[in-house]
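I hope you will forgive my troubling you with a question about protein structure. The matter concerns a single protein, recorded as an amino acid sequence and a row of backbone structure tokens. Please examine both parts with care and let me know of anything in them that strikes you as inconsistent. Here, with my thanks, is the record as I have it:
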Amino acid sequence: MTDSATIEQAIIELVEITKIYGAGDAQIAALDGVSLSIFPGEFVAIMGPSGSGKSTLMNILGCLDRPTSGSYLLAGEDVSDLTKTQLALIRNRRLGFIFQSYNLLPRTSALENVLLPLIYSRNGASVPDDLQQAKALDALAAVGLADRAAHQPHELSGGQAQRVAIARALINDPAMILADEPTGNLDSKSGSEIMGILNTLNAQGRTIVMVTHDAEVARWASRVIRFLDGKIASDERNGHDIRGVACT
């Protein structure tokens, strides 16, 4: 870590996180004592083969699941033992999600899809409709889709649909963006455009954690963490192991 990073509070702090599925002899440790810090403004790629634990990690980071043991601090708050309702509030207010399959509502305009997190937020009811829509239009403009606000998902290309998903992820000004294979359903040109947008957001100070199996996509990140058998196999930043050992 740089000196500035070491004195800054981590946005993610995992301490000895385990996630066990099954019982008795059928127990499987999807995560096995994972400790990890991610700091504000980082762009982190999570990689690993199928069954390595990366998807389980993202579910825990996204407050979609809780660890079996260990602690998870998100922006200084321990969210390890929160109720499902409390986790839902954390997801809505602090996290932005980008999925491989976009997860847009059909027969609903791009503008309305971007508005969804505001509508689901408890604070949303106190925000006048015109201000909500203005905020959503600004988010669409930020990803170059201001002229597609009235279009439904079936009227958009895959790259455009993913841009709408990015705008939706930004609408509540989240502390962190979680991207799960954001280019997995896109051709190389559209994928490069999406990664360019994520790179710009990161340059503006957004913290991004991304799961990808594509080494070329991972090159956009400033830090690459590889998982194997529920453990961190390597943690590299700019060609060097985070622990100070040069990586080949």
